[in-house]
TrEMBL record:
Biological processes, Gene Ontology terms: proteolysis involved in protein catabolic process
Cofactor(s) the protein needs: Zn(2+)
Pfam family, one: Peptidase_M48
Cellular component GO terms held in the UniProt record: membrane
Protein name, as recorded: Peptidase family M48
Cofactor binding note of this UniProt entry: Binds 1 zinc ion per subunit.
């Protein structure tokens, strides 16, 4: 049987004591009561439910022989980011990525514990592999910096999440899994994920401001009245692109050119 870092009754006591602190934060930043082990356990349950939900719709590209090449190409990008030496929970979290087949949706999201989901519509929207690496780095940062757990704790409360961990609230688990792609992070968390995306990519072959390329294109589409879903769940302050580019210039890791042969193949076959 898995162990919580704190006993459930103690977590509930802490939640009652600290709940006001979390809810009264000016930018949605509260006190994270979950342990890393709880992140992993909750993420495993949420990912399993997410898989089930999209598989039932015929939209989950399972990791089988039919999709082996697509995942070989995608994993190649993900692993370069994960192996940058900058991911805090690289060895603690299981880290996997799955594709949801929906060309009309340009979005990606992460569960606690490092399970990443990316819609085919987002992959096909991007122009190059550095942009893909940048967006994946952004989602990896949300999990690695434990933003997803913090937002779930604030939205649902620690007692409800604990009930899911012990298997007492399957209906709520379905609701959380269904809403994870629409989970909105605080401004601070979004900025931190942007900055860490640059830091991760700095130790790779990719242009480390890849995420900025996506936001530039997304904002142009937004002005045309058809914004990518990623913008609604990851709201972009006016200075966001500039902040990514400034961090990239500081690390001197922008303007790198990599082959897009594998990336173009990935877009064709999904």
């Amino acid at each position: 049987m898995r162990r919580f870092l704190l006993k459930p009754w103690l977590l509930l006591t802490l939640a009652a004591t600290l709940g006001g602190t979390a809810s009264c934060s000016s930018d949605g930043d509260g006190v994270l009561l979950f342990s890393v082990e709880d992140d992993k356990a909750l993420g495993e349950q949420v990912a399993a439910q997410t898989d089930s939900t999209y598989r039932a719709k015929g939209q989950l590209l399972d990791r089988n022989s039919a999709n082996a090449r697509a995942y070989q190409l995608l994993d190649g990008v993900v692993n370069k980011v994960l192996n940058s030496g900058e991911v805090k929970y690289r060895t603690e979290f299981p880290w996997d990525v799955k594709i949801i087949k929906d060309d009309a949706v340009q979005n990606a999201f992460a569960t606690p514990g490092g399970h990443i989901y990316v819609f085919s519509g987002l992959i096909k929207f991007l122009d190059n592999e550095s942009e893909l690496a940048g967006i994946l780095g952004h989602e990896i940062a949300h999990a690695d910096r434990r933003h997803t757990s913090k937002q779930l704790q604030q939205q649902y409360g620690i007692s409800l999440l604990l009930s899911i961990l012990v298997g007492d609230n399957p209906n709520q688990l379905v609701q959380i899994a269904a809403g994870l792609g629409q989970l909105q992070f605080s401004r601070n968390d979004e900025n931190e994920a942007d900055q860490y995306s640059v830091v991760y990519l700095n130790k790779t072959q990719y242009s480390c401001d890849g995420a900025a390329g996506f936001f530039i294109k997304a904002e142009a589409q937004n002005q045309g009245g058809n914004p990518p879903a990623f913008l609604s769940t990851h709201p972009a302050p006016a200075s966001r692109i500039q902040q990514i580019q400034t961090k990239a210039a500081e690390l001197n890791c922008q303007n790198r050119t990599v082959s897009n042969t594998g990336f173009e193949e990935l877009k064709r076959i999904i």
